[in-house]
Amino acid sequence: MSAAESRTFDVVKEVILSAHKGNTTAEKMDFYNSWASRYEQDVAVIDYRAPCLAASAVAAHFCGERQTAVVLDVACGTGMVAKLMKKDGFEHFMGVDGSQAMLQQAKESGLYQDLKLVLLGEEPLSVQSGDFDVVLIVGALSVGQVPVEVTRELCQAAKQGGLICMTTRGNHDNAGYKLALEGEIKRMEEEGLWRAVEVLEVRTHKMSAAESRTFDAVKEVILSAHKGSTTAEKMDFYNSWASRYDQDCAVLDFRAPIIAARTAAAHFRGDRQAAVVLDVACGTGMVAKMMKKDGFEHFVGVDGSQAMLQQAKESGLYQDLKLVLLGEEPLSVQSGDFDVVLIAGALSVGHVPVEVIRELCQAAKQGGLICMTSRGHHDNAGYKLALEGEIKRMEEEGLWRAVEVLEVKEWERAVSDIEEGYVPGCVYLFKKL
Question: What is the pTM of this model?
Answer without folding.
Answer: 0.58
